[in-house]
Amino acid sequence: MYSLCGSASCTTTRQISLSLGGSVYDPTDAVGRLLFNVLAMVAEFESDLIRLRTREGMQVAKAKGRLRGKQPKLNRRQEARLVSLVHSGEYSTAEVAELFGVGRSTLYRAIERQRIEARAGLAKSTSRG
Question: Which of 63, 87, 103 is the last residue of a domain?
């Protein structure tokens, strides 16, 4: 829930009042407290609606194939070449990363992806035979 300062007593100690349509509402009396609480509830409701609409919009975009995150720096062929260079032993991981213009963490993720794909391929071939 949203409030002006985090606590109900804060509005009274700071002597805050709301002027709306020529009327002044004081949070120390019953009508003023009611108005402040209603405004806070409306603000929270609107925030929830925005959050809900954003999620729905992202789901629609994802279903249409338009929701995309950060694009990978390397394509599949580059990634396969990178992994083969590392496994060949000719170059260190830092050298291969520098050669391809990526960080070592990107290189390690590519190696891990290749390892997972190899395991998945191996599992498929053993389950067929």
Answer: 63
